[in-house]
C-alpha cells in the first residue's frame, strides 16, 4: 500500500506523516487532507430484544428486511415503522439483498443461496452445492451486473468437518453455474461491489486485513489483493470485520467491534460511527438513501449520514 502512505501535512517546513517525519523536500507539495465522514444526527434504536440481527436490505419502496438468525426469522420494517415477520422458517438466513428483479436474495446458513418473491414469498434455491458437496454456511451476498451473485461461505453454523474443506467466495451465474473465485480466506463474511462494478470487496472476520478482487470486462475475477487495515480495539491485533455497505462515492462502511469503520476507495480510514451494540451488518435506505440502518446483536439502529448509499 505504498501509495496510501503518501498523504501528509506540511508543518514548520518539514513533512509530517502518520508514520514519522520525512526529510525536508523543497519540491514536495502539500496535499489536501482526507475528507472525513461523520453522522449528521445521533444513533437511534428502532427496536430490540432480538436474538442476533443481521442482513439489512432495503427495497425500492422503502421496506427494510433484516434477519434474526437463531430464530430463523426474516423481519420486515414497513416505512410507517411497523415490524412484522416475512418468514419464520428462513434456514437461519443471514445476509440479504434486493436484486434488480425485486427478489429478496438470502444466504441460508443451512447451506443454500435462495431468492424469495417479495409478494408471494415463493422461495427458489439458486445454489446449494459446489462439486457435489453442500456449501459450508452461506453468509452474505451481492448481485453482479449479469444476473448472477457473489457470496461468502465461511464456517459459522457449518457442519464439522467443513463440507467444502475451505472457507471461500463463490459466484453463481444467471444460468446457475457455480464457480469458486477465491482460495481459502480466514472467515470470508461481508461482500460488496464498487459503483463501477470493477472491484469486489470481501470482509474477512478472522484477520484485520480486508481484501479486494479486480473484475474484468468479461466478468472474470482476478487474484485477491489487500485493500485496507481495520483499526483495532486496544490490546487486539487481528479483529476482523463482519458486514459492509457502500455509498455512491465508493466509500466502504465496515461493521467492526469498534463500530462502523469508513474507508475511501483508496483504503484510507475516513470515519468511525460508534453503535451501542457490536454491529453485524449495515445498509442504506430512507427517501434520500442517507439513512444508515445497522443490525447490532439484539437491536436494530438507524443513523443519518451525509452521503447517499449505493
UniProtKB/TrEMBL annotation:
Pfam families: SGL. InterPro entries: 6-blade_b-propeller_TolB-like (IPR011042), SGL (IPR013658), SMP-30/CGR1_Lactonase (IPR051262). Keywords: Hydrolase, Signal. The gene is gnl_3. PANTHER family: LACTONASE DRP35, LIPOPROTEIN-RELATED. Residues 52-296 form the SMP-30/Gluconolactonase/LRE-like region domain. This is Gluconolactonase. Residues 1-22 form the signal peptide. Its EC number is 3.1.1.17. It comes from the Bacteria. It is an enzyme of class 3 (hydrolase). One of its GO terms (molecular function) is gluconolactonase activity. SUPFAM superfamilies: Calcium-dependent phosphotriesterase (SSF63829). Gene3D superfamilies: TolB, C-terminal domain (2.120.10.30).
Amino acid at each position: 500500500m505504498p501509495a496510501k502512505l503518501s498523504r501528509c501535512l506540511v508543518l514548520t517546513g518539514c513533512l509530517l506523516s502518520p508514520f514519522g517525519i520525512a526529510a525536508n523536500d523543497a519540491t514536495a507539495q502539500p496535499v489536501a487532507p482526507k475528507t472525513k465522514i461523520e453522522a449528521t444526527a445521533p444513533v437511534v434504536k428502532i427496536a430490540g430484544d432480538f436474538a442476533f440481527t443481521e442482513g439489512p436490505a432495503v427495497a425500492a419502496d422503502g421496506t427494510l428486511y433484516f434477519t434474526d438468525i437463531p430464530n430463523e426469522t426474516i423481519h420486515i420494517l414497513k416505512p410507517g415503522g411497523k415490524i412484522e415477520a416475512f418468514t419464520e422458517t428462513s434456514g437461519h438466513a443471514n445476509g440479504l439483498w434486493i436484486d434488480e428483479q425485486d427478489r429478496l436474495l438470502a444466504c441460508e446458513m443451512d447451506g443454500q443461496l435462495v431468492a424469495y418473491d417479495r409478494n408471494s414469498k415463493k422461495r427458489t434455491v439458486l445454489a446449494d452445492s459446489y462439486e457435489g458437496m453442500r456449501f459450508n454456511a452461506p453468509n452474505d451476498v451481492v448481485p453482479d451486473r449479469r444476473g448472477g451473485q457473489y457470496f461468502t461461505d465461511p464456517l459459522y453454523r457449518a457442519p464439522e468437518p467443513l463440507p467444502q474443506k475451505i472457507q471461500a467466495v463463490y459466484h453463481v451465474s444467471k444460468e446457475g453455474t457455480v464457480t469458486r473465485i477465491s482460495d481459502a480466506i480466514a472467515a470470508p463474511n461481508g461482500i460488496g461491489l464498487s459503483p463501477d462494478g470493477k472491484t469486489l470487496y470481501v470482509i474477512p472476520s478472522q484477520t484485520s486485513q480486508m481484501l479486494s478482487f479486480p473484475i474484468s470486462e468479461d466478468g472474470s475475477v482476478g487474484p485477491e489483493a489487500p485493500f485496507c487495515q481495520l483499526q483495532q480495539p486496544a490490546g487486539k491485533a487481528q479483529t476482523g470485520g463482519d458486514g459492509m455497505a457502500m455509498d455512491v462515492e465508493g466509500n466502504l462502511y465496515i461493521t467492526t467491534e469498534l463500530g462502523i469503520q469508513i474507508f475511501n476507495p483508496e483504503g484510507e480510514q475516513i470515519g468511525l460511527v460508534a453503535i451501542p451494540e457490536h454491529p453485524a451488518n449495515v445498509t442504506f435506505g430512507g427517501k434520500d438513501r442517507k439513512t444508515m440502518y445497522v443490525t447490532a446483536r439484539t437491536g436494530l439502529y438507524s443513523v443519518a449520514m451525509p452521503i447517499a448509499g449505493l
